[in-house]
Amino acid sequence: MTSASANSITITCSDGQTLSANEYQPSGTLKGAILIGPATGIKKEFYANFASYLAENGYGVITFDNRGIGGSLNGNIHHSKITLQCWGEKDMPAVFEQLKFSFPNAKYHLVGHSAGGQLIGLMHNAHELSSIFNYACSSGQLKNMKTKDKLKAHFFMNVFIPVSNALFGYTKSQWVGMGEPLPKNVAKQWRHWCNNQGYVQTAFGKTVFQHYYDELSLPSYWVNADDDFIANNKNVADMLSVFPKFEAQTLTLNLADYHLKEIGHMKFFSKKAKILWPLALNWLEKHS
Questions:
Q1: Are strands 59-64 and 18-24 parallel, antiparallel or unpaired?
Q2: Which domains, and CATH codes, for the chain?
């Protein structure tokens, strides 16, 4: 079976902001359509092999860059007023509308990676999803980490982010291996949410005045790895508590069970971890 190729498309959000995206056509009969929600600061190309795998198995797929990231960075990052919140309120709903347009009359699913799963409750059209598969999706709350990991996370969140923002006008996340450079307010909001319980719940009634976390009752599968210090079991449970009506299943991957040296927060989507991908495919086929 040949690898599925991506078509580059541009998606326009409700406020006129344009997003760079890739669309993957399914091999054979369409089984369903999938929106891949990226982690904070991670470009769409990171998910290319995984998206191709899903397309080769009969699914239409769209990957995208959130505004301010990769191909969706319009203008100078120093002047960007983008927040993490608007990724869930504006970007993800717009990409979902494109998914419905590109693959009509299908069942729709979201594969969320970290922030891509955390922000679902900000999507006004999320109720149209048939299921959700989340990997490494948690509140990322610092206090629930082990001491050595907590110190590392504390340095990045509470020292590196404010210092970088003050010196450069944005967060140079790439300097510490944390994805693409982040607009100042994205990193600022990320920092605030990870320092408090329930992640986005921190913003309810402050910057988030309308959300759907209390309403959504979708089948969802929350997978994390035992070597991920960010999305540890406590933080997955903390994030899940923000979705009181979710029909949620959870799974913690054990490295030894799959003979992998690392999965962590990112490697699930690596071609080297392809042995894990049937976990997502089986879930999707069950709900398509």
A1: antiparallel
A2: 6-140+211-286 (3.40.50.1820)
